[in-house]
Specification:
Number of domains: 2
Shape: globular
Radius of gyration: 21 Å
Number of strands: 3
Order of helices and strands: HHEEHHHHHHHHHHEHH
Distance between the termini: 30 Å
Length: 321
């Protein structure tokens, strides 16, 4: 039993570490520093749905991490796990989430649930978007001023964002550079102190932040900054960080695929894994003192102060909690 507890502790620590390193982030191409991480996963099908389910059921409170997987041994069952004890309200929250998904026509219909359950997560994502945009603001303004627009149309420069441009600008005539400047200001200013409240004004405010983030995320301008043609490595890495922050804000639109799937399969059962099974003799799981200790244990190397500094510079959120 002690061996089982030890392994459970390791798994719990590693889950937290992977979460902090952004393991499910499809925009995470590479970092400078001690770690080089590259993900070529196409988050489609089951994996995409599992990811967004886990995101929506994660509150954003310190240490709250949810994982999801399909058990297809006997039919299909969604299995959920979290870091920490599973409480009765987790069952209630999950039932509420899937009930609202089945009733929804669009992911925006789920904002009341998200603003209530995932308020901390959403506000943190908006704040980090604002901080990253602020850090890049002057450089991006210079890039916009000298941007050689080769797009043949607005749709060519801003693909898949026509509805959001209409929401932001109605029928006002806008140039590509004006839109880039505008969405940049929204991402910096309006997301900085966003307060997710369950009322219409807050939903509209979030829609503006989302629309700006989505438009910038899918723009040819940002593709150029993060592409191989950009030889300014420092700017490229910071632009990639911005792209990740934009992706985090925009990830909830993936709920549209889950909504469509649950129209076809509305009654997929779920269950939470519990660590309080009686009669197994397990004790309390205690994680080690911090993420650096987990890293050292995984790679079996004692890190130097310089290496620790590089890691915390590349992944400052490791020190957030």
């Amino acid at each position: 039993m002690s061996a089982m507890l030890h392994r459970q502790t390791e798994l719990s620590e590693q889950l937290l570490l992977l979460y902090e390193l952004g393991y499910s982030d499809k925009y995470m191409n590479h970092f400078s520093g001690t770690f080089n991480f590259q993900s070529h996963l196409d988050l489609s099908g089951d994996l995409r749905m599992l990811n967004i389910i886990a995101v929506c059921l994660t509150s954003g409170r310190p240490g709250d991490v949810v994982a999801a997987v399909f058990d297809k041994c006997e039919g299909v069952c969604l299995v959920l796990a979290r870091h920490g004890p599973v409480l009765p309200e987790d069952e209630t929250t999950t039932h509420t989430f899937f009930s609202q998904v089945k009733a929804a026509s669009s992911w925006m219909d789920l904002l009341p649930f998200l603003f209530s359950h995932s308020k901390a997560n959403i506000e943190k994502q908006c704040l980090r978007l604002s901080q990253t945009t602020t850090d890049l603001f002057s450089d991006l303004q210079l890039e916009i001023a000298t941007y050689l627009d080769k797009s043949e149309s607005m749709e060519d420069e801003f693909p898949k964002s026509k509805a959001w441009r209409r929401f932001l600008y109605k029928d006002r005539p806008m140039t590509i550079k004006c839109i880039l400047e505008d969405v940049l200001h929204i991402c910096r200013d309006e997301s900085s102190a966003f307060d997710a409240q369950t009322n219409k004004a807050s939903y509209t405010e979030y829609a503006r932040v989302y629309g700006a983030a989505y438009t910038l995320l899918h723009s040819r301008f940002l593709d150029k900054l993060t592409g191989i043609s950009n030889h300014n490595i420092s700017l490229k890495l910071r632009a990639e960080k911005l792209k990740r922050r934009l992706g985090k804000v925009c990830q909830y639109s993936r709920l549209d695929k889950l909504i469509k799937k649950m129209k076809r399969f509305p009654d997929i059962p779920f269950r939470w894994l519990r660590d309080d099974l009686k009669g197994t003799g397990e004790g309390v799981i205690e994680n080690c003192r911090g993420p650096i200790e987990v890293i050292e244990r995984i790679i079996n190397v004692k890190l130097s102060p310089e290496q620790i500094d590089e890691i915390t510079q590349a992944f400052p959120r490791l020190l957030d909690d």
